[in-house]
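Suppose you are handed only these lines of text.
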Amino acid sequence: MAGPKSQNVAEAAKSASRRRPRRLPRSRYTAAEVHEIFRRFAVQRPEPKGELEYVNPFTLLVAVVLSAQATDAGVNKATRALFKAADTPQKMLALGEAKLGDYIRTIGLWRNKAKNVIALCEALVRDHGGQVPDSREELVKLPGVGRKTANVVLNVAFGQPTMAVDTHIFRIGNRLGLAPGKTPEEVEEGLLRIIPPEYMRHAHHWLILHGRYVCKARKPDCPLCVIADICKAAEKTTDIPAPLVEIAPLEGAG
Ligand code: SF4
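From them, the structure of the protein bound to iron/sulfur cluster can be written out as follows.
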């Protein structure tokens, strides 16, 4: 007979299942393996940097907005002159949409991007005294700023341990089975769960650089890979890891 006790158990189980986080596909790596992967990335690049150029949180935010469907190198070419002319929302508004467009004409979708940047500057001046907010909640309210852009700004400009999942990180999460997921959000959540806290701050850059230069989209360059012995990707072509040495900071920048 179901007495009050079994009823309580049923209720407790129900509320526990309500609290239980969404089920994500499991990482194929043990905690020790994940730790070793990031230890090696840290040896390779002790102070990894993104490749977008910026001079303050505002210019970083603008550069990230401009970089959608464009290369970092292409964005840098345009923003070097732009940021000399306008490195605050107020100066960008004074410059105006037409002149801003002249600076960024070489970047894809420049007309729309110029409009977005002006709307972004208006919101920053109106709602934040011209400062870039340092919370995700406020950042995603800004025009043209999605979760990924907010994560980049929080990580790079404010040092917060976020994971902005771009095309490289999404591929690595799935190809290696490190944090499998159908959407960038699932991969983000999976990575946030498994990456040891001491490596979280730089993990975003390490994964992007690994994806851009070694574990490339079409054909991974496994002989150059320092985690080839740990990697469980079906596509890998060797089990022998590349020598673990520090990569000169400027190598690959551009
Ligand atoms: S071994 Fe190959 S597939 Fe695995 S992470 Fe390295 S480059 Fe990518």
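What can we learn from it? Residues 1-19 have pLDDT under 50 and may be disordered. The chain has two domains: 31-49+161-224, 57-156.
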